[in-house]
Protein 1
Amino acid sequence: MDSLVAVEKEVDKALDLFENFYDVIDQDINKVIDHVVSIMNDLAKIENDQTFKLSADDSVSMCKEQVRDFIKRYSEKHKDLHANISKIGKVIDKNFVPDYGNLSQINLIDTPEKKNNLNMAICEHLLRNGHLEACETLIKESNLNEKIDEERKKPFVRMNYILKKLRDKDVDPALEWCQANSKELKEINSNLEFNLHRLNFIKLVQQGTKAQLEALKYARNFAAFANDCSKEIQKLMGSLIYMTTGLENSPYSSYLGPELWQEIEEEFTKNACKLLGLPVECPLYICVNAGSKALPALVNILQVMQQTQVGTTLSKDELPIEIDIGQKYRFHSVFSCPILRQQSTDTNPPMKLICGHVISKDALSKLNLSGKTRIKCPYCPVEQSPNDARQMFF
Amino acid sequence: MDDLKIIEHSTLKVPYEHLNKMYRNVQKSIDRDCSSINQTMSQIDKQTKTLSDLNQKAELIQSLSNLVEKLRLVKKRSMDLRNEEKEQLELIKKRVNNLKEHDSSDLIVRKNFQKNRLDRILIDYFLRNSFYKTAQILVEQSNLQQMTNLDIFLNEKEICDSLESHETQKCLNWCNENKSKLKKINSNLEFALRQQEFIELVRQQKCLDAVYHSRKYFVNLTPNQLIDVQKSMVLLAYVKYSDNQTSQELLSETRWQYLIDLFKQDNYKINQIPEQSALTTILQAGLSALKTPTCYKKVTAVHNHNCPVCNINFNQIAKPLPYAYCSNSKLIDSYTGEIINEHNQPMMLPNGYVYGFNALMKLMSENDGKIKCPRSHEIYDFSEAQKVFIL
Ligand SMILES: [Zn+2]
Ligand SMILES: [Zn+2]
């Protein structure tokens, strides 16, 4: 944030100086024009040879001085502004990093297959976000024609239509979709249909007393959700109290913000993708978000590694530091051996000791270097045979 | 360091570079105007020195009126220049303000920023890969005209197209426009273009023209360029080129592709566009941070189709990348997707499969009090499950 403020400060300064420069120049040029015009008028009145010559000599040389003065200022004052321009560039360079250092040395997309894979992932992202036209153009421009058939696009076309309507605050197509898929939605414990009804209801309450009867009638739609959403239904019905005074200054003001509408779009997309057998969240979006979290840390550690001459590139096995990308983006169990601090692999799986403590197979072998028949658990007093340890699967 | 610092340098530096270029052109324009005024003024001065009688009055007044005309023109142009510079400065300001949304206190604004950022990164990727139409559509649909550098790439496309149809003029014009910048980065582009022109002349059997061309353009060469020139000049000596490898290389069609790549490289450099697309670098970091050994295990692995690394589109791409480093175990129940921790104790079935306590309860309720392992389908009693301790 500070870096942005620093750049903005320089830009604002430059904007001021430029405005000022052109204001002054405009005034100056007006003065010169006025002066020349007045000379012309004066000369026009003269009817005497001698006076004409003297007066012309005099005024033209004065005019010459003024004009030369002006053009000198015009050019030089603009030249002076360069210092401010280049300052902007310097502040940008000082506050932002121009490249990714050694991180960009590997060529991630090094085969035509991988290129196709990446373009497919982008197509999926575009479809999920309502950019049907962009997706179709990308398919053409990147020659993905054989890979994506019309059948695959079909469900997205419907999805896009519903999303577009939701953006216009029209929930009806989404409700229709819910009713057509009610069985499947129930299986995934979806609240989508209720949340859509909720939005319709709030829309009615917002209209004030004239929609009172209609709102009451609409509330009957909530009956089907009485078991799962009773609390929220209570809350919604309470909003009827504020119908006359308006929701703005009531405990219900949060219903009016854009949040609910944004949330419903996301919820619908997630539900629709789940029913289509697609990942709940767009894989490309997850990668880029995780990447923008990881990138600063990785660029940083590479710099440190270079400075301390530990190395210049990342290891091929494991990142040098832990990056917290949040619980939401954890998709698999990772077992890290508490003794060796290594992640388990197929050849070094987690082993459960008799006592219930878990260590890696490599750690177990190290405990048993001398080939003893009995070992002691590193975490409790239980003695046991290494052969009793069991491999486990998370 | 935050991600803005790493990712957004070019978002600000590219319009800055454009501002700088524009500023220099404005200076040139101002200087041209000034010298033109100066010239007119000098003529009037001269005219005044030779005045003798009133008959010349009209002539002098006409000259002065010409001067006024010129000044008015300069005044008008100065307003145009003012707007140009102001607009470009304001463009940088707009980009700064857009980037500020990254740290907004409003969650929706922040989410929108991330969405837009992905679109911007994709547009950059499209443009680098010549998917110009896709880029244009996304720019329009996402309203990102001011946040992307479409113009630079569309200009680039025009020149690339001309090179593809074996024309050098447009690219040479571009070299001329950016002469000082190209000199600063030791560009070889103009030389390579002239060399290509020479080769084309030889191809057309216009050997004499080729010699003239070489005398005109192959001057002040660097040692490396001299070697290249000598290689090209050899072409003049052979009647048939087919049997000489160097000649074949020079006459090959791929040299035009080489020129296109060379031009693109220099175009990126002088416009401060990073050589690598942000998309692949960010993907590289992101995939690595998400990658676990489980994503590549074939036998015992739990498939999670929400995981991007397991996703068919990214699995191969992520293969050569390092795994995320994980100092402490983090367990996720393969059946319910819940976290396994002290509130949801890990339990191992006799077959070695581990589930959280909650999952076992759920499995029991679904199967008349018996646990049917979702992976091996063996059936157990709850008493057979053993508590395990993950440190
Ligand atoms: Zn133990
Ligand atoms: Zn995975």
Protein 2
Amino acid sequence: MTEYTLDAAVIGGGAAGMSAAKALVDAGCTTALVEREQTLGGILLQCIHNGFGVHEFKEELTGPEYAERWEDMVTPLAGPRGATIFTDTTVMELIPGSDEGGFTLVCVSPGSGFFHIRTRAVVLTAGCRERNRGNIRIPGTRPAGVYTAGLAQRMVNMEGCLPGKDAVIVGSGDIGLIMARRLVWSGCRVHGVVEIQPYPSGLTRNIVQCLNDFSIPLYLSHVVSRIHGRTRLEAVDITPLEEGRPDTAKTFTQACDNLLLSVGLIPSAELAREAGAQLNPLTGGPLVDCRLMSTVPGLFAAGNGLHVHDLVDYVSAEARRAGENAAAYLSGYQPARQIRLKPGSNIRYLVPGTLDPARPQPILFRPMIVKNGAILTLSLDGKIIKEQKKNHIQPSEMMQVDPAKLDLGNLELRPDSVLEVSLS
Amino acid sequence: MNSQQNSNQNNKQGNNNPDSRNPAATATENPEQTREIICIACPVGCHLQVMFRGGLAKDASPDPDTIAITGNRCPRGEIYGREEVLAPTRMVTTTIPVAGSSFARRVPVRTTGPIPVARIPDLLTQLHAMELHAPLARGQVLLTVEGSENSDNEAIQVVTSHRA
Ligand SMILES: Cc1cc2nc3c(=O)[nH]c(=O)nc-3n(C[C@H](O)[C@H](O)[C@H](O)COP(=O)(O)OP(=O)(O)OC[C@H]3O[C@@H](n4cnc5c(N)ncnc54)[C@H](O)[C@@H]3O)c2cc1C
Ligand code: SF4
């Protein structure tokens, strides 16, 4: 069997993978970039709307443009001392070495069959998958016509087929909202977006431009309570919630021939789990330290494969750090100590889990509340070290704080110090 | 089973203000006095009240001098609100079938800037009737959108947003 030996491998060639691979090659590491599809770009290729790259490129690009700009930066890195790019290639298994560390990637591609890549570090950037009907348990029949929103997006944008003519969308996340406009622009009718929460989970801009522009009703605090139809979807029941409980007397039926589920994303962490990495139950991705390294030494993660992001710019930046940290790991760098990072009030989770005071890196987190004029507080061992006013926060918008600006050198740090991030 | 009206009175958000772009939703014969829109110039999302002094007749275009905006937390809201009622524009993106590409069946396209909302349906019809042939580079100009310019008075075009 063919075997390649390189310093590092990056699994997944989306926004995160391209950025991690570039950082590794820039730091002098020979790097394999392995992508299942024929072209690099990942999910970006089906996100044809604009709104990508405001931070990375200082302009608003479409998803495919953002992807191709990165591809243009990564492709020239190919060479024996740089990157080896394997497209149309799936990593089937990631096996950590038993003795002196290192990994074996079991790969398969239509052209070369099975082959192995051996490396000393891996960055996992395999993206995420969509939660489906099983995850939200809608009762009723099992007709054709129920799709996840991202799958429908791929069908419409890349394959050119419509999921139906009359749609109902479950979940007000951005993918669902963007699909609502996409379907109307493709000649379909969208009869409503049903959201279980009392507030929309997508960006306001998408509520305005994807729903309000077309007078598509947004049913907040409502659920799809039943699916009707024998072979093909015929209708759904929609029930309002009163104080969290379904008010069944007010259930109404909406005819439709397709139902799109936009009910959340989960990191694809199977390869990491099978390699022995511990997962973070709050994010679904691997648990990582200050270097974005999992509990398996040498295995790093970034992008949607680590935790689900809403801004691609944050994905590229996070993956760049993962690549740089993987290169530092390969050259023998070990943090002398790590401070534990703790999610405080109104914070769902933080990534990473620790901070290296010698190399502080941005902390990403998700708020649990919607608020204008919130206060972000950082406290070290119970003492407030920084307060910052935030114009507007909401759970659908990931936040970031850069501890490099905290002047940690002048603070008293104990081996068991805890830095807590909270919102009020 | 109850009527839709009943169940979503309190919870149906957003589109309870008929909009001139949506004739179907404009049921009232009385001139429109106020319109509520959400400012999207920043993530705060202020709810703006746009008042038409003297009222706005159905299908009439508002007179800039009769508009007053409240509810904005900052001056950008005023600018956004005026633009949104006087001359709303949007970016348009879609995909077009492409023949002869080794990896793509459709190529994504975009307008080079926002175009008047009223021109969107015709543009989409025009684009969806097209068929392209590979090879295509990113940024290739497919057509010029009639009657739409950016702030530098350059015509807005439709360009490919990925190679194929
Ligand atoms: C519908 C949608 C709309 C969005 N809209 C915006 C927006 O408007 N603005 C914005 O900034 N961000 C937006 N985002 C967020 C952002 O685009 C994504 O978070 C980002 O592109 C994710 O990049 P990634 O590399 O982590 O994952 P992906 O792009 O999913 O890349 C993962 C790659 O890994 C490959 N892969 C997986 N497993 C394997 C394996 N075993 N072997 C080989 N390859 C594998 C996959 O094929 C894929 O190419 C949106 C996201 C979605 C889903
Ligand atoms: S009015 Fe100002 S603060 Fe309010 S949403 Fe618009 S830009 Fe933001």
